[in-house]
Write a structure and sequence with these properties.
The chain has helices at about 5-10, 10-25, 30-45, 50-60, 60-75, 95-105, 105-125, 130-160; strands at about 50, 80, 90. By secondary structure, the chain is mostly helical. Helix 3 (about 30-45) packs across helix 5 (about 60-75) and helix 4 (about 50-60) packs across helix 5 (about 60-75). The longest helix is centred in the last third of the chain and has 35 residues, at about 130-160.
């Protein structure tokens, strides 16, 4: 972004958006600091910022940025990149971060399904708890199948709408 374009942005409006969107993410279950960092990255034209830039914009400590980025990287919502010729890292969101975050949930669903199968066996399929586990297992198996189909439909829709990268 050019300096004049950056200056033309209403910093207060951007800050209000970041805090508002972060509040929505928190309400949905994300921790507050990762939500704020994610919203800040998402709202930056470059889609990336350094720790210092995030700290300055959000008025938070380097430790808070580090913890938030660690969480976001583990959930595949941001990636870390080295600036060429520098030891400084940049944190980046990608256009497909939601896709990647959901796609990576597939492994989690499979682990939950395995644990639930074990639960049904351990509790007994004919017990109330075993039936509850079996229904939960069926839900996750259903979601896994639907998610795969949904993700494929999204790939097609995204390419039609935004083109290939």
């Amino acid at each position: 972004m050019t300096e004049s374009a950056r200056d033309a942005r209403d910093a207060e409006a951007v800050s209000r958006f970041v805090e508002s969107f972060a509040a929505q993410l928190v309400e949905a279950g994300m921790a507050r600091m990762p939500a704020r960092v994610f919203a800040a990255l998402l709202s930056s034209d470059e889609g990336s910022m350094t720790s210092a830039e995030l700290g300055e914009q959000l008025r938070i400590s380097p430790a808070a940025v580090s913890g938030a980025v660690r969480y976001l990287a583990q959930t595949h919502m941001v990636s870390r990149e080295r600036e060429p010729g520098s030891r400084r890292e940049r944190y980046r969101v990608h256009g497909d971060q939601w896709y990647e975050a959901l796609a990576n949930r597939d492994a989690v669903l499979k682990r939950w399904e395995g644990a639930l199968r074990e639960g049904v066996t351990s509790l007994g399929a004919d017990t109330p708890a075993g039936r509850r586990m079996a229904e939960t297992l069926a839900f996750f198996e259903f979601m896994e199948g639907e998610l795969a189909e949904l993700m494929e439909r999204w790939r097609v829709h995204r390419e039609k709408t935004f083109g290939s990268e």
